[in-house]
Design a protein that fits this description.
Order of helices and strands: HHHEHEEEHHEHEHEHHHHHH
Strand content: 5-15%
Shape: globular
Radius of gyration: 24 Å
Structural class: alpha/beta
Helix content: 40-55%
Number of strands: 7
Number of helices: 14
Distance between the termini: 44 Å
Oligomer: single chain
């Protein structure tokens, strides 16, 4: 991904839901039309899932943090980190917030790739690039990191490490960079000599960003003995945000899980008018948790495919077999084998067949 790809991603409109007119008289809809509509609905639900309370809470926290850091003096600013288990949705959530920020910061620019004259450089015209998004690897060297950042901005990277560092600092100012996001930052291993050099580069980049009014967000699946987050210099500037998967161990946690399922009910009802309040959030709440273990990605896949199957078969609600037939991730499958979950829950009475 480079700045052009990121700009296109941020400017792309959100998908519109499939036209309701296609299912208002489902009985009369020909089979191939129903199959096509089912695919469109599934695609829409995967791309625009129901809002998750836990993820919305993280978004709000990140928005507030960005606003707070923007008030800090230029220089060594707060470094934000987001940690969560693998596949919990941390990268997706951070990207969603970054997309909002990009649209806000670039509101005065058109949809074409933006150009500007940097402050203090009236004779220079450059791409306006407020956000940089790169992924770290376990073998990412400091030189690789600088090269990734410069390549994102469209600069050459065939320089010595020290020159790459200088060019990166200059590019931040020229392009008006306000936020650098380093994803998969947990991959960094500082006990290796190369990893320590990369960690030093991260700290230097964060400081250089702060000098031009920017900030850094680190995203990863860190554990308690993280190499990067244990660094004392980073810890002195660190603000850590934790994203958890859903749990049903307490009444409060169960209520939060049911809120998520209720949001899915409301979203699916648009396409399956026979759905009733409680079909998912009450009758199937425990079953869906056992199948997904509270991971929103598996839940979205389960419910989007179940909805599509119900439409294809001409029904106006989800039934037990719709949920049971969805094949989820290997992680979810491993849990099912270990826990004895067999795809059973107390189903509602099947609604009328509408096709």
């Amino acid at each position: 991904m480079d700045a052009s790809d990121w700009h296109a991603f941020c400017r792309a409109p959100s998908p519109d839901p499939p036209a309701l007119g296609r299912q208002t008289n489902v009985v009369q809809v020909r089979d191939e039309q129903r199959q096509r509509h089912a695919r469109e609905v599934e695609q829409f639900l995967v791309r625009c899932p129901a809002e998750s309370p836990l993820h919305e809470r993280l978004k709000e926290g990140l928005r507030d943090e960005v606003a707070t850091v923007e008030l800090e003096p230029f220089g060594a600013r707060t470094i934000t980190a987001v940690t969560a288990p693998f596949t919990a949705g941390k990268s997706t959530t951070v990207k969603a917030v970054a997309r909002e920020l990009y649209r806000d910061w670039m509101a005065d620019f058109g949809d074409e790739r933006p150009r500007w004259n940097p402050p203090g450089h009236a004779d220079v015209e450059a791409d306006r690039i407020p956000i940089i998004y790169v992924n770290l690897q376990s073998d990412t060297s400091s030189k690789d990191l600088y090269a990734q950042i410069l390549t994102f901005m469209g600069h050459g990277a065939s320089w010595t490490r020290s020159q790459l560092a200088i060019n990166t600092s200059k590019a931040f100012s020229i392009h008006g960079v306000k936020l650098v996001i380093l994803d998969d930052a947990h991959m960094l291993r500082t006990h290796l000599k190369q990893g320590q050099a990369t960690l030093d580069a991260i700290k230097a980049i964060a400081t250089e960003l702060g000098e031009v009014g920017g900030m850094m967000i680190l995203v990863g699946a860190w554990t308690a003995d993280s190499d990067l987050l244990d660094d004392q210099q980073i810890r002195g500037r660190l603000s850590l945000h934790q994203l958890d998967v859903y749990s049903i161990g307490s009444n409060q946690e169960r209520a939060l899980w049911q809120r998520l399922l209720k949001a899915w009910e409301d979203k699916i009802e648009r396409f399956l008018p026979g759905m009733e309040t409680g079909d998912l959030s009450q009758s199937a709440a425990r079953y869906l948790y056992e199948r997904t273990q509270g991971y929103v990605g598996d839940l979205a896949k389960c419910l989007s495919q179940a909805t599509s199957r119900a439409i294809r078969e001409g029904r106006d609600t989800i039934v037990n077999d719709d949920l049971k037939m969805v094949r989820l991730s290997a992680r979810a499958h491993d849990h099912e084998l270990g826990s004895g979950t067999t795809g059973r829950h107390r189903p509602r009475k099947t609604k009328r067949n509408v096709g």
